[in-house]
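Case study 2.
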Amino acid sequence: MIKRLLPFIAFALLAVLLGAGVLRNSGKDTSAIPSPLIGKPAPTFSLPVLGDPSRMVTDADLRGEAYLLNVWGSWCPACRDEHPVITELAQSGRIKVIGYDYKDEPGDAQRWLQQFGNPYALVIVDYDGRAAFDWGIYGAPESFLVDADGIVRWKYIGPMTDEVVRDQLLPELEKFK
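Prediction:
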């Protein structure tokens, strides 16, 4: 009889354990995954520009002005949700916004920008995702705030919202501008 109940007991214990974990994290902001890059120089990279693959952009080329590196892809549904927020931020002139097209086909990315608008001062492309490892990119969308000296100051995982810009990004930006 007990042998028959063992799988049920094991399942019940596992369910209780998982439920306790979910309850412990309830209400926590899981987009605020800390990045080991915060306070450190942005990773070294050399990536092509969307639409002009012969033109390479490096991390050194971006120094001298703070920027928000916004990781996106035409394949990413959440990127479509955040795009109006990124567009509004770029148009505000508060921060230069650099697009980081992640694991995308160039034609798809260009069509996506034609359809939804291109808010980016520049779009660099990481076709195979190799440079993403150095940035600690999990997927899209993600955003990194980099100061004029090339130091990563802030990272956000997930689609940016007006609240995230107002409550998190802009206060970070004010710390070093």
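The longest strand covers residues 52-58.
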